[in-house]
Amino acid sequence: MTRIVEKVVCYVVADEHLLVFTHDHVPLTVAGVQVPAGTIRDGEEPADAAVRELQEETGQHGRVVRALGTADYDLAPARDEIARRHFFELRVDAFDPTARWQAGETDPADGGAPHSWTCWWLPLKDAHVLAAGLGAALGSLVATFDAS
Length: 148
Known about the structure:
The protein is α+β, with helices and mostly antiparallel strands. Helices cover 18% and strands 42% of the residues. The protein has 3 helices and 7 strands. It has helices spanning 28-31, 46-58, 138-147; strands at 3-14, 17-23, 37-39, 62-74, 81-92, 100-105, 115-123. Strands 1, 2, 3, 4, 5, 6 and 7 form a 7-stranded mixed sheet that branches. A hairpin with a 2-residue loop joins β1 (3-14) and β2 (17-23). The radius of gyration is 15 Å and the shape is globular. The N and C termini lie far apart (45 Å). The mean pLDDT is 91.
């Protein structure tokens, strides 16, 4: 039976740029361009998980601006799992569109080898390059910017 795993996806936006990352030691064709995201812990509210994942994956402190909805993503054939993704728009206090910085996990939850990635700011108009359904709620996000 396919299990459902509750996840969060973080759209961190500043000056019409989106915070993204690419893995340092995994080919772009395998991992793609990603946004901060991760699993909601037992008893944790989705918005709180979004703030935690942002900090853990990028070192940035942020706050939730709004929820953008929920969508299911089937991970087959890689895993027999449905990711129930809760999408959030977040803001950070500091923003430099030219900044690039290293982040990663020295002790991944899956017990595997450490991972490192490079964080950077992608123009929001180019966010269609997001991998693995991470862009599923971009329409809800950019509608706000198109209206202004």
